[in-house]
Design goal:
Layout lengths: L3 H26 L2 E4 L31 E4 L5 E3 L6 H9 L3 E4 L5 E3 L4 E4 L4 H7 L5 H5 L8 E2 L5 E2 L5 E2 L6 H10 L3 H8 L16 H14 L8 E2 L2 H10 L12 H15 L10 H6 L1 E9 L7 H8 L7 E7 L2 E4 L17 E3 H5 L8 E4 L4 E10 L3 E7 L1 E3 L4 E3 L3 E3 L5 E2 L6 H4 L6 E11 L8 E8 L4 E6 L2 E5 L1 H4 L4 E8 L3 H4 L1
Parallel strand pairs: 1-6, 9-10, 13-17, 14-20
Antiparallel strand pairs: 2-3, 2-4, 4-5, 5-6, 7-8, 11-12, 11-16, 15-16, 17-26, 18-19, 21-22, 22-23, 22-26, 23-24, 24-25
Helix pairs in contact: 7-8
Length: about 500
């Protein structure tokens, strides 16, 4: 039988254990707050290894829940309580300063207290850059160069993107869109889309969040490095496109651009109306398409005349919106010239734009019949996207048309392509080039590379961006490239400019 004294001592020990557990639980729920001057480990933070561009998941458990970044080695770990991966890492490696990737609060492990210090604000800003309305308004007038933590210089907005394997076709679209002013300004202000509540299970809104993060990082004047990795953005693309677009296989930027703009529009609740999203307000124009069925060539003259007069072969007109214009190149010469093809075929931009003058007829084949179409523009968008059709797919392989398009950098007037009934109310019709995307190399799946030319408004200089490589380029050199996608900016009227 247990002695009374021993029994009493056992009860007291149990009470002490319960109090210790309660104290530990309270400590885990509400960690102690300690000022930075009391934390001896701040000098162990290594900003050179901090990289917040990749997925925020634990390097051990691969969980996205309650992730912390070790500010000494840059790795991500889950939790900070006893027996968690972050706590274990702190004890085993002697790394003590951690950042909660969701709440942006700093903690010291294994001591379990919160660190408060203004010297850590730069780390929070790199993880989640924010822009005020005044800062956004000043972007187009800033000429100053920013300096990364490693000492390299860069221009905010003109920043290289990492090529994970074969995602350069996505990189050029991201770099092009982040230099379109309405798109840039909308996504720099997180309040424009942070309050949107997507339906449960809808992953498409992840595109909006990830693209907003990418835009803010590309325009961040306080980056730790002079480039950005679009890893999280690409993961969202793969998920939301149901693996249609991959960063391991080369793709077509025209196809990706059409899908991406439409996906952003729908994710933000966009409808058919032009004012329903920033995407439609920026890029949507309107055209009228005239079409008629082609009379079969094998018929006699009388049969052709009789068939052409029938209602089924009369020309019809339909108004339709467009997000970009697709212009065809003239066929390249079939035979080499006398100098072994020393001369590359060239064509004027205005020649390929004649497709939209309302007079020129084009023949198109469908799986049912052949039709003849004419196109004329009814409304010009603030930013016009022009895609030049360089690739033709036949039964066996893909052919590329290397014809050089001669285009001016500034003052491209599209007034002559407007329908007569739309010209009077058109307003300004003059465009300036903003972005030029180029394809280099051979056609076909997985072949060739893409690069992008963008205008930096603050300096007025052109830059070439090819993945991580950024260099200044003369405007005259841009016109000699095999342009594939171009974005033009409509000049504002004097009333709009004021």
């Amino acid at each position: 039988m247990e002695a009374p004294a021993a029994k009493k001592q056992k009860v007291e020990d149990q009470d002490d254990d319960e109090e210790a557990e309660a104290a530990l639980a309270t400590r885990k729920r509400a960690p102690e707050t300690k000022l930075a001057r009391e934390c001896p480990y701040l000098d162990t933070i290594n900003r050179h290894v901090l990289d917040f561009d990749f997925e925020k998941l634990c390097s051990v458990s691969l969980s996205r829940i309650n992730c912390y970044a070790c500010l000494v080695c840059g790795k991500y770990f889950q939790g900070r309580g006893l027996s968690t991966h972050a706590y274990t890492h702190s004890v085993s490696e002697g790394h003590h300063v951690f950042l909660n990737l969701l709440t942006l609060r700093f903690y010291c492990l294994p001591d379990q207290y919160e660190i408060i210090d203004s010297s850590l604000d730069d780390i929070k800003y790199v993880l989640n850059p924010t822009f005020t309305t005044e800062a956004i308004a000043r972007l187009d007038s800033q000429e100053s160069v920013s300096r990364a933590y490693d000492g390299s210089n860069y221009l905010p907005g003109t920043v290289g993107l990492n090529n994970i394997k074969a995602n350069d076709y996505c990189n050029v679209i991201f770099q092009a869109l982040t230099n379109v002013v309405p798109i840039r300004d909308f996504f720099l202000d997180e309040a424009n889309y942070s309050s949107v509540k997507p339906p449960p299970g809808d992953h498409t809104f992840l595109l909006v969040q990830r693209f907003g993060e990418l835009v803010r990082k590309l325009w961040n004047p306080h980056n730790f490095k002079a480039h950005v990795s679009p890893h999280e953005m690409l993961q969202a693309v793969v998920l939301c496109s149901k693996k249609r677009f991959q960063f391991t296989d080369q793709g077509d930027p025209v196809t990706f651009l059409g899908w991406f703009l439409n996906a952003l529009h729908l994710a933000m609740g966009g409808k058919k109306k032009r004012a329903s999203s920033i995407i439609y307000r920026t890029f949507q124009g309107r055209m009228r398409v005239y079409s008629r069925r082609m009379v079969p060539a094998e018929l006699t003259a009388e049969q052709k005349k009789e068939l052409a007069a029938s209602p089924d072969y009369q020309e019809t007109a339909e108004e339709t919106p467009f997000m970009y214009l697709l212009a065809e190149l003239p066929p390249p010469p079939l035979f080499k010239d006398e100098l072994k093809e020393n001369i590359i075929p060239q064509v004027s931009l205005f020649t390929i734009l004649n497709k939209f003058n309302g007079q020129e007829e084009r023949e198109y084949k469908t799986y049912k019949e052949e039709v003849v179409k004419r196109f004329e523009l009814l409304r010009l968008p603030p930013y016009l996207i022009l895609c030049i059709k360089r690739f033709t797919k036949n039964t066996f392989f893909v052919e590329k048309n290397n014809t050089i398009v001669n285009f001016p950098i500034k003052s491209i007037d599209l007034a002559e392509y407007l329908a007569p009934d739309a010209a009077a109310a058109a307003g300004e019709t003059v465009y300036d080039l903003l972005t030029n995307i180029v394809h280099d190399g051979e056609p076909g799946a997985g072949k060739g590379t893409y690069r992008c030319h963008t205008l930096h408004r603050g300096t007025g200089k052109w830059h070439e961006l090819q993945d991580l490589h950024v260099r200044e380029v003369l405007p005259q050199m841009i016109t000699l490239t095999e342009a594939y996608i171009q974005i033009y900016e409509l000049r504002r009227t004097p009333a709009e400019a004021s």
